[in-house]
Every structure is written in C-alpha cells, then in structure tokens.
Amino acid sequence: MTPDGVDLRVIGDAEPAGLCGSGLVDAVASLVGVGLLDRSGRFLPEADAPALAPGLAGRLTTLGAERVFVLHWRGEPGDVARSIFLSQRDVRELQFAKAAIATGWNILLQEAGLAPGDIQQVLLAGSFGSYLSPANAIRLGLVPRLPAARVVSAGNVAGEGAKMALLSVRERAGALALQEEVRYVELSDRSDFNDAFVEQLQFPA
Length: 205
Fold this sequence. Notes:
By secondary structure, this protein is an alpha+beta fold. It has two domains: 11-90, no CATH class; 99-199, no CATH class. The chain has helices spanning 21-34, 49-52, 88-112, 126-129, 134-140, 157-167, 169-179, 193-199; strands at 60-63, 66-72, 84-87, 122-125, 151-155. The strands form two sheets. The protein has a three-stranded antiparallel sheet.
C-alpha cells in the first residue's frame, strides 16, 4: 500500500472473499506506514486524508456510525456494505491482541534480566504466526524491534514436535530434559500487568 493506491494480492488470484489474520496485520501496518492510522490506532479525519494519501482517501469512509477503510470494492465503488473493509473495531481488536503479546514478552525479558537487543532470534509459529510478515510484525510491535532477518517463520512447530516425540526416544528424552529448564511465569496475577498492557496499546513510533 502506498499513498497512491492498494496492491491487493489474493491466494489463487481469485476474487477476494475476506481478510485473514496475517492480512489484517499487513493492512494495519500499511495504513500506519502511510499515515492513515495514527499511533493510537485511530483513522485520520477524512478531511485530512486527500492531502496525505490522495489515492487512498476515497477508501476511507463510514459504514453506519463506524469508520472503515475499504480494501476491495466487491460491488459498485461506493457500496461500502458489500465491500471488503477494515473497520475501526478491527484495528482495536488487533491492538488488544498486540498489547497482550507485547506485554508478555516484555515481562519475560524483565524476568530474565535481558533487553530486546539480547534476543538472537524470534520464531513465528503456528497457522497464524507462520504467515506473518516479519517486517510488519516488527512495525506494529508484535515482536521486539530487531533486524527483520532475526524474525523467522518456523511453521507448525507443535505438530512437528509431537511427531518427533512420538517417533524418537532420544528426542522425547531431550524434550523431557528441556522441561526441567523451563520456568513458568504467570502474568494474570501480576500487579503491573494492566499498566504495562495499556502502555503497549499504541503502535510504535
């Protein structure tokens, strides 16, 4: 996405039918990048959009009382209800998820006495994480601000790990040994969690 327009790519080159989780992250990161979303997660006022992003201003509109950004017109341009859009509520829900994740890894770093720069590698795992753009995950604060090369897609690590443990006695023994080195950190009962969560709601500058 640039100030002049949207480059939308769909799996199988088919007509878009909706927006997946990694697509949501990419869309929000792009809108933050061009300035149509501010750090607090609010859409820019419609009157200000043409000067900042002339090719995108017509996509910033409302549906009922909610502000939305149209990613793809499914009917006639202007038919917002039939379009595929990103709503202010979508952005807020992503912010809540992002704040919870970022608060978690910040607290873990504090517990370990480490700074973000000490992290050698971040693995993005699972059906959601594997498809995230490392650059956009960093831009939104989902992962620590590191060189993008250190943020790596790891695939279905839970499934692969289960297969390894089932098929190999040595791997199973290694997993059991590793378990003894892991320290569980409970987040829900921490007195500082709520304040840290609120601090992480904004997108990084």
